[in-house]
Amino acid sequence: MLQGGGALGAYQAGVYEALAAGQLPHWVAGISIGAINAALIVGNPPELRVARLRELWDTMTSSFPLLASPARDDLRSTMNDGNAMLGALFGLPGFFAPRFPPAPVRLPGTGATRSFYDTAATRLRFAPWFPSRSRSRMRSSSTSSSACRIRPASAITPSPAR
């Protein structure tokens, strides 16, 4: 089960790289960034999985070179907070961007009122990382994912295609 959270997602990619040298998992489940990692793992042939995960995480690193992590612990915490604030305010190019105007002031009933960020760029970003789907390749690993419907609050678990 690959959970959500940016730093945890990067850690998951490293763990998968270590596992790929030996025993590969037969089933991968994920939520949030873990679901993206899971999709890259299952959606690619075994020989490309580590490279795709590395490519994902290389593109998700900070695009603000002046805010690289300093060696001193007290400054590192401040710089990490600054990077988090920049991500919240400006998004991450190619993955998500803040909606303007923000969700609370948009017209009720529009899809844009449900989130603060627009993630349309994510689908475009990931498309090249998934080669054409092959049933034979998909038999070696399986994946599960789920989501939460905000209104009414309920879990959504897609049925696997048969």
| SSE string | HEHHHEEHHEEE
Return the average pLDDT rounded to an integer: 76
- Proportion of helical residues: 40-55%
Strand arrangement across the biggest beta sheet: 1-4
Name the overall outline.
globular
- Spans where pLDDT lies below 50 across 5 or more residues: 134-139
Number of strands: 6
| Beta fraction | 5-15%
Radius of gyration: 18 Å
Distance between the termini: 22 Å
Largest sheet: 2 strands, parallel
Q: How many helical elements?
A: 6
Please give a handful of descriptors for the protein shown.
alpha+beta, 11% strand, two-stranded antiparallel sheet, 42% helix, 6 helices, globular, single chain, 162 residues, two-stranded parallel ribbon
Task: Tell me what the structure shows.
The chain is built from six helices and six strands; from the N terminus they run H-E-H-H-H-E-E-H-H-E-E-E. With 162 residues, it is α+β, with helices and mostly antiparallel strands. The strands form three sheets. It has a two-stranded parallel ribbon with strand order 1-4. The protein has a two-stranded antiparallel ribbon with strand order 2-3. A two-stranded antiparallel ribbon has the order 5-6. The radius of gyration is 18 Å and the shape is globular. Residues 134-139 have low confidence and may be disordered.
